[in-house]
Amino acid sequence: MRRNILVLVACAVLAACGAAEPSWAPDEAVAKARYVHKGPPAITLFTVVSTGNGSGAHSGLMINGSQRVMFDPAGSWSLPMLAERNDVHFGITDKMVSFYVDYHARETYDVVEQTVTVSPEVAELVMKRAMAYGAVPKAHCTDSITSILRGVPGFETIPATMFPKTLMTAFGKLPGVKERRITDDDADDNHGVLLLQRNDPRFAETAERQRVEAAVKKEQAVKAGKAETVGVETLKPETLKPETPETDAAKPEAVSTEAKPAETAATEVSATDAAPIAASETAIAAPEAAPPVLLLPGAEAAEAGPTEADPAKP
User: Do 225 and 254 have their domain in common?
Assistant: First the structure.
């Protein structure tokens, strides 16, 4: 009974590990992303730790051998420029490591980095095991890493566990391990990067702020009547929309070819268009011999396409 309770608690604690789906990048993408790090062969364990209660939330394993890869089991971290095969990410440059750390380190979570130097043979063995493990299901990030490390020379003391903190403690006891703790402030200040993915809770806030800032700049450019850069878009005076509603008189191709008395054209406009019509009584009162002028309720209607009062538009 006690064991069943512990398993349930483990699943709840490790809920931060995102769901994983099988993925298999083509050989060309993997070859292109390949990165060889100049440092010695090493195994690095990343543990995401809650700043609130100190519990572990996620585990990741970086392997530096003939190339450097990141095994992020059941993780939500991903980059389009990296090739991925079942939770193994290729092309892990120093900048990508910074991205990985910054993605996980935030106000509510710290990242503990533990590195141990190994022989080239051990590094290759761990890398092959990670590549052969397959896509990791949700809440199994830690026990997938322990399964890979157990039995490897130098990692015999690693226990089988589902708890990130338990694995972190055991890894910290390995001979020659180097450890550092990275906070949210450290991630931003030391690395100088901020990577926001669409599944990052910080993404929505940042995207909304950028949208508001762009809208304010655009409004200022319209009022100033001069070109001003808004993000990657340049507003030019000739491209700015006029503040007054545009009528069909300025669009000869949209004028109906069927002659209608001015009175009939006026009656076909819906009641919701009363305000624009009242503001343009002189257009409706035009001589009957003149072509009818169909009025639009405003710039918004002109962009919306054909309306019931303007069936001649394509």
Answer: no
pLDDT tens for each residue of 122-132: 999 999 999 99
235 and 120 within one domain: no
Whether 154 and 171 share a structural domain? yes
**Band of pLDDT at residue 278, cut at 50, 70 and 90:** very low
Please indicate whether residue 28 or residue 79 has the higher confidence score (pLDDT). Answer: 28
pLDDT for residue 173 is more than 80:
yes
Measuring CA to CA, how many Å separate 105 from each of 57, 153, 194, 218?
11, 31, 11, 35
How many CB atoms are located within 10 Å of the residue 98 CB?
A: 17
Domains: count for the chain = 3
Residue with tokens 């790090």: 37
User: What's the DSSP call for residue 50?
Assistant: E
Range of the domain at 257: 248-299
Strands (DSSP E) contained in 88-211 are 88-90, 109-117, 178-182
Return phi, psi of residue 249, to 5°.
-60, -30
Please count the helices (runs of H) and the strands (runs of E) in the chain: 12, 9
User: For residue 174, is it within any domain?
Assistant: yes
For residues 56 and 133, membership in a common domain is answered with: yes
Residues 91, 210 within the same domain: no
Over 90: is that where the pLDDT of 111 sits?
yes
Q: What is the pLDDT of residue 15?
A: 41
User: Once rounded to an integer, what is the mean pLDDT over residues 260-281?
Assistant: 42
Query: How distant, in Å, are the alpha carbons of 40, 120, 254 from that of 127?
Result: 15, 11, 67
